Amino acid sequence: MKTVQKCIRVGVTESAMLLLLNRGSVADQNSQFARSKLRHQWNTIGFYDNAFSLQDTPLNEIAWSTHVTQSVRDYWALYLDSCSDATSLVYLYRSLVDADEMFGNGFEALDSLFRPIRHPDAPVFETFTYSWIEDISQQQSVVLVSPFAKIMVDQFKSGRLQQLRPQFRADRVSGFGFPYCFNNCGPHASAFETIDWAVQAIDERAPTGSVIMLSCGSMGVPIADQLHKRGHHVFYCGGAMQLYFGIMGGRWRNNPHDRALHPKDRLLDSFSTHPDLWVDEIPTKFVPAYAENVEGGCYW
Question: Does the residue 155 lie in any domain?
């Protein structure tokens, strides 16, 4: 495949942000969004800035508003720009349900947000299919970017992944362990620095033209954008990427509704038929102390 692929999956968090911003400009609407979703933004999707304390929010309204305007607004503007040259977009089923509840006709509502910025030839899908990744990954080097990267690589090296996903025929699989950045915690001064650091580190270890699969919170899309510009195929898969590699999480283990969002023939059927091929208990070293704050420990 000659075209360097850039597939961006739009999930619940992304679509909610886009739907809200559609009511006005990023600058006009961001403060409203931040007031209603600030803790969700820090606790659940991984945006962070160590110059700002959540504890100060109710005490210093002016400083908080200034921070939101300068930092969060710029971050989401970067996010939107990162979607602009995607070769394909995926609007997940659950996102369409949310869009439908807010505006009616979820698919059209979401697509109308992207239409001004996306390339007119970029296809749009309602279902994420890993067959794209399987086709382009054959005999290629694949880099997995996720906090669970080591577990995913172990699944490949042990042969369990090949039994779960026989169409995944990568020549080489390596991992980049992305740090947890929930709860306004991260290894750098802000999410912007983490994005720059991750892009440089991943690019240095990934052979030119590698297939890079990403599952690293809201930073995944800007990171994917920069890696795509450096000549790599990128697939931002989101949280469900762990299911492809046979790693179960609380969101799917305990919630029949969320399990129903993933057709059995794609990801979850083998969990009941071949549980020995799955990692059902995440090792404690991969579980942050604040895991329960992230949607009740949805990934663990």
Answer: no
* 243-283 per-position pLDDT tens digit: 999 999 998 887 766 665 565 456 787 888 899 999 999 99
Q: Is residue 217 part of a domain?
A: no
User: Containing domain of residue 38, as a range?
Assistant: 11-125
> Can you give the pTM of this predicted structure?
0.85
Handedness of CA 241, 243, 246, 251 (dihedral sign): positive
- 121 assigned to some structural domain: yes
CB-based contact 175:212 (threshold 8 Å): no
Question: Total domain count for the chain?
Answer: 1
In the chain the beta strands, taken as DSSP E runs, fall at 6-10, 88-91, 124-125, 141-146, 172-177, 211-214, 233-236
> In 3D, which of 300, 272, 241 has the Cα closest to residue 11?
241
Q: Summarize pLDDT for 219-251 with one digit per residue, the tens.
A: 888 899 999 999 999 999 888 899 999 999 998
